[in-house]
Amino acid sequence: MIDIPCQINHFFHRSCALVLLTNIPYQCEGCDEASSGLAFRCGKCKFQLDVKCTLFPTIESKDADKILHCAHKHPLTLRDSKELGDEVRCRACTKSCFAPSFGCTECNFFLHRSYTVEVQEKEIHHPFHPLHALTLSSPLQLSHHETFQCSSCLELDDWFLLRYHCVNCHFELHMDCFKPKVTIPDFKYEHHIHYLSYFDSIFAPIECNIFHEHAQTGFFRFMACAFNIHIYCIRSTPKTIKHERHLHPLTVTKSPFQYEMISAKHANGSNDEFYCDICEERRYKFESVYCCPECKFITEVRCVISELLPSLTILEEQSTEKGTVGSKNEGSSTIEAIIGNLNDQITKSKQERNALKKEVEKHREILKSLEEELEQKKWQVRKL
User: Fold this and answer.
1) Do 64 and 78 touch, CB atoms closer than 8 A?
2) Coiled coil where (predicted)?
3) Strand partners, 187
4) Helix, strand, coil: what percent of the chain each, to 5?
5) SS3 137
């Protein structure tokens, strides 16, 4: 009792402090067990957590073999890979738990140790969706086969996976997508108010807002505005480059090429496979590439990003000197810009609604006049 604090702040309930109370009937929010003994409680939110669950070690604790984690309501026990079969999959990445993992055998819920370290917040604020906070989902059973689409990488995955999502919008974010993947800094495009994040590749083609071409690799995005621009569509991006993997210059060109296609007659609907000569991976066939026509050497934009980035850096520095690009804190903030855009849409909708109301009233007057005219003619017919 001496070692138990009278008041704590716990990551299961960050909004309020929890106070130690005695002899109260409750159901623990951590392990779901009912009791009437000691409990930490938030009277305002009616949240209870028993002492046992409250004092569980966290993942940062040395040699912790049992932890309480925000991703699951029950304590998670450290399991060696030898104890787990090939069928046991991590709820964050779907891969088999060959490495030591924390899990709850009762719910068949397992997480690789790396994800228990990286994911420690039940609720986060993310620049990809600045209007609302994102909440860690409660994964469904493994037998649940419906899918969701990650709003960042556009990959389809099973609902049983952990993810961050917005309860107000249809916005889903993979565990691997909520943290930065690349070290390329955000880019300020001169004709857009927000800084854009670089995406190396995604799982479905998206349309460029400038030239309306579709691509899957090497582009900048600001997801809240649904603004996308391919790196080769930026004015300062060089159209011809030199790369160490090829002797001749490479020029950006629209793909696919006729010599790549098995059947040119059915080019749009064919299942021909197209590859990048640098990474040797499949590429999206309708995306512009850098190529050498003489040698038929073709590479995706993302594979020559090191040759393209310097031109963007120079452009940003020049724009900053001229005052066209300021710091991220200058001007309207992300949220203010989005709210302003929504307010404009609301105002426009109200104006359209008022115009429609006037149009309806006008037609009602015409209809009333026609009905009166019809009644007069009926009366004249009866009189005859």
Assistant:
1) yes
2) 339-380
3) 196
4) 25, 25, 50
5) coil
Bridge-partner residues for 134, per DSSP?
Answer: 124
For the beta carbon of residue 373, count every other beta carbon within 10 angstroms.
Answer: 10
**What angle (nearest 5°) sits at the alpha carbon of residue 306, between those of residues 303 and 308?**
95
Nearest Cα neighbor of 197 from 176, 217, 215, 221 is 221
Q: Is the dihedral of CA 232, 235, 240, 244 positive or negative?
A: negative
Centre a 10 Å sphere on the Cβ of residue 300 and count the other Cβ atoms it contains: 28
CA distance 100 to 81: 5
- What order of strands is seen across the sheet that includes strand 109-112? 66-67, 76-79, 101-104, 109-112
Helix (H, G, I), strand (E, B) or coil at 44: coil
> 184, 187, 157: which is closest to 173 by C-alpha?
157
Residue 182's SS3 state is: coil
β-bridge mates for residue 199, sequence order: 219
Backbone dihedral angles phi then psi of residue 103, each to the nearest 5 degrees: -155, 165
The H or E element that residue 319 is part of is helix 305-322
- Residue pointed to by tokens 């040119």: 264
Nearest to 48 by CA among 60, 58, 35: 35
Q: Which amino acid is at 369?
A: S
pLDDT in tens, the chain (384 residues): 567 778 877 767 777 888 887 766 767 766 666 765 778 888 777 778 777 777 766 666 666 778 878 888 788 888 776 666 667 888 888 788 777 788 888 888 888 888 887 787 888 888 888 888 898 887 666 556 678 888 888 888 877 788 898 888 888 898 888 876 656 777 888 888 888 888 888 888 999 998 888 999 988 988 888 899 999 888 889 999 999 999 999 999 998 888 887 765 555 556 578 899 999 999 998 999 999 999 999 999 999 998 988 887 655 555 545 444 343 443 344 555 556 666 666 777 788 888 888 888 888 888 888 888 888 888 877 777
Query: Residue 366 burial (CB < 10 Å; 0-12/13-18/19+)?
Result: exposed
Classify residue 132 by its DSSP letter: S
**Residue 367 gets which letter from DSSP?**
H
